[in-house]
């Protein structure tokens, strides 16, 4: 067994009791085996001197849609000239995804995962939702599970064109044969509860069907308008409800009381010109807030957690330390994980060495590639 000492860390964000300065930690069997002052570090087989740089836990991106083909850059350009974002654009990607071979879907996934890792992300949740047939949803998830444990079945993304006249029939398909085919490859079930997608009754039917099959529940809600989705997620005790852009006072109290994580996706507001949610108010109300990329070809095509952190600090009222917590430990909570998102004893040693003396630089230097090195238990 080899032990590795990572030392000369100017600032070590552990997400434990405190952030350490002049720190070090030991990695054994991919796990954190010791954390403390560099001066007190034990002897190890190998030593990595990070030269007075900051280290944070690897980002936990708890919301992405990487099983897709095609490009919607023209839609983005039109949006920047005033065309509003609408859920219907999803159908463009559905057509391209259905036409893509398995190998193309896999290559696209692998490319985006590598892009994420270069930017410090070490745990990735990703969803189906651009196939919307039994075959296409199942094959997307079968590809995804080869690369991540955090796979989510999102057959209830939108009603596909061929079911436009029979949305109830589509919900029956999702909760029946499609769930049967997808469930073996998925850890989570999700739905898009929004005007133009699925209403609360339909979302409830989908979520409860999946949860009855042993999948965990998460939900897209309150992205484009206020609505019942956040309260539904809290009532069902879901791990997380994502977007939370338009919240009423009783949504905030439901989040606080249920413990359901509010996952904010500021890249979406950046790319759709909707207003940013008030993360400060949520944290002050006692809500657990996660930050995730929502990387997808329509509403937000960034894979960068540092960019999301910069937006959360500049536009949503989080402190830099809170934003880093939400992008690491917060994401872990949203996935019901306690082995990632922290650098404390026994956690996976997934970590990011920043080309900076402190994690504040992630927000202070937006757009600058500050990830010097990514170390992870996956090796
Ligand atoms: O999370 N909100 C629904 N789904 C995605 C967008 C998908 C798309 O536009 O292709 C989202 O924003
Ligand atoms: Fe999404």
TrEMBL record:
Zn(2+) binds at residues 63, 65, 220, 294. The gene is hutI. Its EC number is 3.5.2.7. This is Imidazolonepropionase. NCBIfam families: hutI. PANTHER family: IMIDAZOLONEPROPIONASE, IMIDAZOLONEPROPIONASE-RELATED. Its cofactor is Zn(2+); Fe(3+). The keyword Iron applies. Residues 55-356 form the Amidohydrolase-related domain. It catalyses: 4-imidazolone-5-propanoate + H2O = N-formimidoyl-L-glutamate.
